[in-house]
Amino acid sequence: MLSLDVGWDVLGVYLENQVSVGLQGSSVGLALALGFGAAYACYYLTSIAKKPKLITGGKKFYEFLRDHCPVVTETYYPPFWCWESRAQTLLRPFVTAKPWVTYRNELIRAPDGGQISLDWFDNDSSSSHPDPPSRPTVLLLPGLTGTSRESYILHMVQQSRELGYRCVVFNNRGVSGEKLLTPRTYCAANTEDLEMVIEHVRKTNPAAPIMAAGVSMGGHRPVLEKNYDIDHVMKAKTIREFDERFTSIMFGYPTNDDYYRDASPIHKLKSVQVPMLCLNAADDVFSPSHAIPIEVVKQNPNLALLITCHGGHIGFLEGLWPRQSTYMDRVFRQFAKAVIEQGGRLNNLQ
Question: Within this chain, do residues 148 and 212 fall inside the same structural domain, yes or no?
């Protein structure tokens, strides 16, 4: 019995020591976690969450944006768990919800025999602009291979719906399910189809103010293989290889570099005569900070450039859980409203 009593005493002392060590370990772990959290919060607030840079070609445009688009002077807070450029770019389509939008489709014929698909959101329930002929129209231009069903387009339609505006989405040839009638799709340098669409939209609602918003920059094989080696094209592993084998050939460029030179907006910015706001993240994986033509923007009073430190390519996620809208959506909403309702202040920006 004596040995048993001693055994229990020893066991009790051992357990007491273990509990004490465990509590001390938990305290150390908690302190480390709190310290790391505080350090990360400090890093986030000083290095990640920052106000964007607003660059304009003139004082008048700067003051217009400052007065009517307060988002351009506010701090952009990307999610603390997702601010890296590639993560923002890849996760946006999966994180943000897709608003439900019902379109009215219209196919218009191009001079070369091809057809272009337009998806209209008429917004007939608009209370702020109940008169259809004068209801403001927002022309939306999706990015590369994008259509009216892209999440970022649906959010822009949703923002326009809440403002009471009409939307029309320009789908490039062969990407939205319509039949490709000619062996021609589209490229970043050719604007013939867009010019035709703008003229069509103007004639459809001549009394309605119109503005355009574009994001970033497929077809049917039986038509294209008559003119191109599609098997060779589909083996391309990079965008450059695809353009070399397909796009630059389709539009008659001597070399792929000639196509890229003609497609680059830097050569066209000086001639912009309509007030234009451009949003770009400094960490954009396709258009990084060193490629942004800041000095060219400063030379044209019709141009404004908003640069965020983070956001990736068409990412711009913000807040704790960016399910409903992004920083880009807020910029679009405020700028669209300012242009349509306060556009008179943009006259004579020289």
Answer: yes
Name residues whose C-beta falls within 8 Å of residue 251's C-beta, 6 or more positions apart in sequence.
187, 189, 190, 259
Number of domain units in the chain: 2
Positive/negative CA dihedral, 24, 27, 31, 37: positive
Encoded amino acid at 136, one letter = P
Neighbour-count burial for 58-95, b at 16+ CB within 10 Å, e otherwise: bebbbebbeebbebbeeebbbbeebbbbebbbbbbeeb
- 336, 139 in Cβ contact below 8 A? no
Active site residues: 216, 284, 313
Same domain, 180 and 285: no
* CATH number for 180: 3.40.50.1820
Higher model confidence: residue 11 or residue 238?
Answer: 238
Residue 248: how many CB atoms within 10 A of its CB? 23
Q: Which amino acid, 200?
A: H
Average pLDDT over residues 322-344: 91
* 133 lies in the same domain as 115: yes
Q: Are 53 and 125 within one domain?
A: no
User: Is there a contact between 123 and 299 (Cβ–Cβ < 8 Å)?
Assistant: no
Domain final position from 233, 252, 280: 233
CA–CA distances in Å: residue 239 to residues 66, 248, 256: 38, 12, 11
**pTM for this model (two decimals):** 0.80
Residue 98 in this model has a pLDDT that exceeds 60: yes
Whose tokens are 């400063």? That residue is 298
Range of the domain at 149: 97-233
